[in-house]
Design goal:
GO terms for molecular function: hexosyltransferase activity. This is DUF2029 domain-containing protein. InterPro entries: GT87. It is a multi-pass membrane protein. By secondary structure, this protein is an all-alpha fold. The protein has a domain of 153 residues. The chain is built from 21 helices and two strands. It has a two-stranded antiparallel ribbon. Strand 1 and strand 2 form a beta hairpin.
Length: 431
């Protein structure tokens, strides 16, 4: 899978022209947006990056949203034949992450960004290795390369995304929570302020369990970030807040690859938006509230770190379902599932003793994250060909939801809430 995908990607770059691949995708894909944000910050024009414009594509069709200043800059950088720009829509303080790379010319910056992300992923894998005993006897390179057996990891590097940074923060938060360092855990979670939607699930759990030290840590880091932003970037923050309500319309636009969004929002939009967007919104809200309700019930019945096996499995479920709440969760962001998958592997003997379907559904999870988005595209094309409303049943979200539900049932089973894992279910060194 990795060799075929990467070989195909390299061929598309070689066969492309200038800084675009054969398929007219800019070199570095989404890194172009990050680079744009960094350059606008260095040029002291970051406020203008959020200027919106509307393209009227035809009678009876909703106008398309785009960012003219970004499009002009990216066409100058990549080439005038760049049609679909890659907009920077993160909060302005996120540009600070990309400034060191924006000092460089585009191609060296792209290479440096790739190396940085490879290093970040290695750090995340080593945090997992050091914390979970199942991985401790494995060489570091095997734990690291094992991450690439999961397709979203490969996709993350094909799109040059920032997900490895989020994964490191997830791993640091999990390790610190597991070891009772709650203020530090919350502080790392708060650093997700540049992608706050990815912190909702875990923050909700910390709130209902009233882990006040974690909440204080999160408030501290968020306050530092926002305090800096409003002190040194007041105009930029106002501009971002002004356009924020329009961002959901942006990812619903016809030229946006909605087929790749693997969240409750993406699932609902693909299924019902062409019929009635109101139905999509209702389904998204229903799935979100239902998930939060189950998380509430789960953690009301799970004592904090009293039974570490139960706590680990509950955390794996929380991370898995928490990301589905995020409106924008492209399939490369599913790389974040590496952490809950690792936790499940750590507790696989116990989980398997309660539900022997778990390994089958890990396999289904791996396959669905590899093929799911392409299946969505195929459905849309077929519906378009036969001139029916373009709807698609996106399989990734239901698979993740059901996989998490299997973990939910294990934790909620009567025997799962009474005692620690039996010794026979654990490796000798952990017993």
């Amino acid at each position: 899978m990795a060799v075929l995908t990467l070989t195909f990607h390299i061929i598309s770059i070689i066969a492309g022209t200038g800084l675009q691949t054969y398929f007219k995708v800019p070199l570095g894909a989404d890194f172009l947006a990050f680079y744009t944000g960094g350059v606008f910050y260095l040029n002291d024009t970051l406020e203008t990056i959020y200027d919106l414009a509307y393209l009227h594509s035809g009678f009876g069709q909703a106008p398309e949203i785009y960012f003219p200043n970004q499009l002009d800059f990216q066409q100058q950088l990549i080439g005038p034949d760049l049609l679909a720009h890659s907009p920077f829509v993160n909060p302005p303080f996120a540009a600070l992450i990309y400034v060191p790379f924006s000092w460089l010319d585009y191609v060296p910056a792209y290479i440096a960004w790739t190396i940085f992300n490879l290093l970040a992923l290695f750090i995340a894998s080593q945090i997992i290795k050091s914390e979970l005993t199942w991985f401790k006897n494995l060489p570091s390179y095997k734990v690291y390369l094992g991450c690439f057996l999961f397709f979203p990891t490969i996709a993350c590097f094909l799109y040059s995304q920032a997900t490895p940074i989020v994964l490191v923060l997830y791993c640091l938060c999990y390790r610190n929570l597991r070891n009772g360092n709650e203020f530090s855990a919350g502080f790392f979670l708060g650093m997700l302020a540049f992608k706050p939607q990815l912190a909702i699930g875990l923050a909700f759990v910390l709130l209902i369990k009233w882990r006040w030290r974690s909440l204080l840590g999160g408030i501290t880091s968020v306050s530092l970030i926002l305090g800096y932003s409003y002190l040194f970037m007041p105009d930029e923050m106002q501009a971002f807040l002004k356009i924020s309500p329009s961002l959901t319309d942006f990812i619903r636009s016809t030229y946006y690859p909605t087929w790749g969004i693997s969240s409750f929002f993406g699932f609902s939009v693909l299924l019902f938006d062409s019929l009635n967007p109101a139905i999509s919104n209702i389904l998204t809200a229903t799935l979100t509230l239902g998930t939060l309700s189950l998380l509430l019930r789960l953690w009301k019945n799970t004592k904090w770190l009293e039974n570490k096996t139960q706590w680990d499995i509950a955390m794996a479920m929380t991370f898995s379902w928490g990301i589905l709440i995020s409106p924008h969760l492209f399939y490369y962001d599913l790389m974040l599932l590496l952490l809950p998958i690792s936790i499940v592997v750590q507790r696989i003997h116990y989980i398997y003793s309660k539900n022997n379907q778990i390994i089958l559904w890990i396999i289904v999870l791996y396959i669905s994250t590899y093929l799911g988005s392409q299946i969505s595209v195929a459905q849309l094309e077929i519906m378009k060909l036969i001139k029916l409303p373009e709807i698609s049943f996106q399989i990734i979200t239901p698979v993740i939801l059901y996989w998490g539900y299997l973990l939910y049932k294990v934790v909620m089973s009567p025997s799962g809430t009474l005692a620690e894992t039996p010794a026979k279910c654990l490796p000798k060194h952990e017993t």
